[in-house]
């Protein structure tokens, strides 16, 4: 089990001020050294932080200092406005429907084209990989966004341990299939289970986070407990929830959304205001909890960290 | 002269049937619930979107009800329904007005550049707008005065509704993420309501009703010739 962290018994408001304080400390003490990869455009920072390598065991979560100027979305909004079609196509009922979802015991199978395939028990996984906090913007393809303080560990750490073979080109995520617990899966309109994928270099990018917590507490069920991924420069649906299987593969995985509407949802799905979507404006977004609209930024503002992954690629054709 | 006097009396002494009363009250309820929820912060984490969806759905439902009035009369001789056709349509237009106000003012802050971009970029916004522009003159000319002024042309003009409502359904189909079953159900209902208006179909059903009339509709007078 994860040790109870002080933040787990801290109310949100106190937590916020603590974070602010730590952010201040971080900025003074660490300077530019450890400033995160989550900087907003106003304060770009390209230094990747690897304060917690896969081999270090940190009892406390690493405060991943953040230079983001965005205001955090409230815990209430993050936990009551959920796109989680396994439970419901409506966002409001998800919190209630997911309340009794079983997240223990839970095992995550890491396999495919790797030298060290392994099935992790979720609690062992939490111990094995030191947890850090990262504040990421999340931009949903539907034109709304949030700013979320996740806790988790870089997917790169897990992949290094699995040791992909030279044939591995993509990572494929498979979410749980449990129609008894997930009413949405009793409906065959979508091809369950939820599948998502990343190119190996995207998966290895330091921004790609395996998420286990939110606001310093264990991840709520409606947000994808016990294990989800957060890929902040891509539309939210790329960040699969309730993951049970991570496979390294040679062929590009076909995601659930690519299957459902191939002309609308591509494999890459990078946040890109230049590529219009037939249903929603991708040039602007509504920040949850705030009034009015803001302009959407390419790669959701993480261009410094990830734009190089797509050098020479046509991102309109490869949407 | 006689007709004018009857009309005046009706205006002075408007007698609402219970059904009309129900329609008028019912049409306001969604707006009051919306305002109540808005003032109590019960419009989800994305209140503007929720309010947009609710007003849009309400408008579509009212328009479908309005379209259902004539077939209800043709199929079942439910004459009271005819009196609901106009108010339901006008209320539908009212909700579209609120829907547009939320879109242009609350959502886009009257930023004309942003609005233009989204109208051009989003095909569903474009058809929604087209539907509104067709319904607007129908709302304006829905009064008795305009009916008289336009005479036969009024009926022709008001056939625009047969195009505007399907466009509203297309607007709905195009904005849903992937699972378009619910908007298609609306589409099916609208298709049936329009199908029943095809002269031959309409005639078939009304003559069928006359033939079956005595069995379930004792009030209905048999026409002298069928």
Give a quick precis of the structure:
Chain A is α+β, with helices and mostly antiparallel strands and 319 residues long. Chain A has helices at 12-30, 75-80, 94-97, 122-128, 155-162, 200-204, 256-260, 303-306; strands spanning 62-63, 107-112, 118-121, 132-139, 144-154, 170-175, 195-199, 209-214, 217-218, 228-230, 243-249, 284-287, 294-295.
Report on this model:
The complex is a heterodimer of chains A (319) and B (226). Helices cover 18% and strands 21% of the residues of chain A. With 319 residues, chain A is α+β, with helices and mostly antiparallel strands. In chain A, strand 4 and strand 5 form a beta hairpin. Chain B has one domain. Chain B is 79% helix and 0% strand. In chain B, helix 9 packs antiparallel against helix 10. Chain B is globular and about 55 Å long. The two termini of chain B are 33 Å apart. Chains A and B meet through helix 2 of A and helix 5 of B.
Keyword list:
heterodimer, A: 319 residues, alpha+beta, Sulfite Oxidase, Chain A, domain 2, eight-stranded mixed β-sheet, five-stranded mixed β-sheet, 8 helices, 13 strands, B: 226 residues, mainly alpha, 11 helices, 79% helix
Q: State the CATH topology of chain A.
A: Sulfite Oxidase, Chain A, domain 2
Integer-rounded radius of gyration of chain B:
20 Å
Quaternary organization: heterodimer
The structural class of chain A is: alpha+beta
Q: What's the structural domain tally of chain B?
A: 1
Question: From N to C, what is the helix and strand string of chain A?
Answer: HEHHEEHEEHEEHEEEEHEEH
Question: Superfamily at the CATH H level of chain A?
Answer: Oxidoreductase, molybdopterin-binding domain
Top-tier CATH class of chain A: Alpha Beta
How many separate domains of chain A?
1
Q: Outline of chain B, from the CA principal axes?
A: globular
Topology order of chain B in helix (H) and strand (E) letters:
HHHHHHHHHHH
Distance between the termini of chain A: 40 Å
Largest sheet of chain B: none
Largest sheet of chain A: 8 strands, mixed
Mean pLDDT of chain A: 84
- Give helix % range of chain B: over 70%
The chain pair with the largest interface is: A-B, 27 and 23 residues
- Discrete helix count of chain A: 8
């Amino acid at each position: 089990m994860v040790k109870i962290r002080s933040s787990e018994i801290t109310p949100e408001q106190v937590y916020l001020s603590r974070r602010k304080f730590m952010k201040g400390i971080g900025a003074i003490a660490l300077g530019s050294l450890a400033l995160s990869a989550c900087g907003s455009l106003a304060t770009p920072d390209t230094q990747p932080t690897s304060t917690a390598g896969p081999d270090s065991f940190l009892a406390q979560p690493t405060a991943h200092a953040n230079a983001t100027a965005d205001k955090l979305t409230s815990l209430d909004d993050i936990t009551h406005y959920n796109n989680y079609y396994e439970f419901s196509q409506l966002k409001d009922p998800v919190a209630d429907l997911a309340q009794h979802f079983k997240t223990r015991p839970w095992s995550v199978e890491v396999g495919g084209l790797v030298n060290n395939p392994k099935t992790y028990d979720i609690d062992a996984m939490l111990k094995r990989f030191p947890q850090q906090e990262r504040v990421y913007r999340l931009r949903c393809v539907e034109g709304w966004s949030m700013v979320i303080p996740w806790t988790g560990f870089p997917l790169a750490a897990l992949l290094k341990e699995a040791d992909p073979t030279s044939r591995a080109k993509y990572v494929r995520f498979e979410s749980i299939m449990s129609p008894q617990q997930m009413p949405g899966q009793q409906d065959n309109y979508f091809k369950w289970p939820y599948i998502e994928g990343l190119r190996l270099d995207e998966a290895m990018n330091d921004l790609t986070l395996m998420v286990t917590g939110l606001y310093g507490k264990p991840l709520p069920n409606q947000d994808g407990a016990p294990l989800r991924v957060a890929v902040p420069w891509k539309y939210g649906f790329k960040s699969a929830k309730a993951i049970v299987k991570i496979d390294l593969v040679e062929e590009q995985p076909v995601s659930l959304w690519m299957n459902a509407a191939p002309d609308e949802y591509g494999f890459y799905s990078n946040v890109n205001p230049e590529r219009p979507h037939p249903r929603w404006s991708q040039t602007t977004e509504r920040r949850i909890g705030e009034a009015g609209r803001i302009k959407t930024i390419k790669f959701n503002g993480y261009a410094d960290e990830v734009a190089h992954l797509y050098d020479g690629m046509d991102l309109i054709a490869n949407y | 002269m006689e007709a004018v006097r009857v009309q005046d009396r009706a205006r002075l002494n408007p007698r609402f049937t219970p059904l009309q009363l129900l329609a008028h009250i019912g049409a306001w309820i969604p707006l009051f619930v919306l305002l109540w929820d808005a003032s109590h912060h019960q419009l989800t984490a994305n209140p503007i979107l929720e309010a947009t969806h609710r007003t849009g759905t309400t408008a579509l439902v009212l328009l479908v009800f309005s379209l259902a009035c004539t077939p209800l009369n043709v199929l079942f001789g439910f004459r009271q329904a005819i009196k609901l056709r106009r108010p339901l349509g006008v209320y539908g237009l009212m909700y579209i007005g609120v829907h547009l106000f939320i879109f242009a003012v609350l959502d886009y802050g009257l930023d004309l550049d942003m609005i233009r971009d989204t109208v051009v970029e989003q095909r569903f916004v474009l058809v929604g707008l087209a539907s509104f522009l067709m319904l607007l003159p129908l709302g304006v000319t829905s009064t008795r005065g305009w009916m008289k002024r336009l005479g036969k042309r009024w009926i022709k003009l008001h056939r625009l509704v047969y195009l505007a409502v399907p466009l509203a359904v297309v607007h709905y189909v195009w904005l849903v993420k992937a699972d378009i079953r619910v908007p298609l159900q609306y589409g099916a209902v609208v298709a049936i309501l329009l199908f029943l208006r095809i002269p031959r179909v309409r005639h078939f059903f009304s003559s069928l009703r006359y033939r079956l009339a005595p069995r379930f509709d004792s009030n209905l007078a048999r026409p002298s010739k069928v």
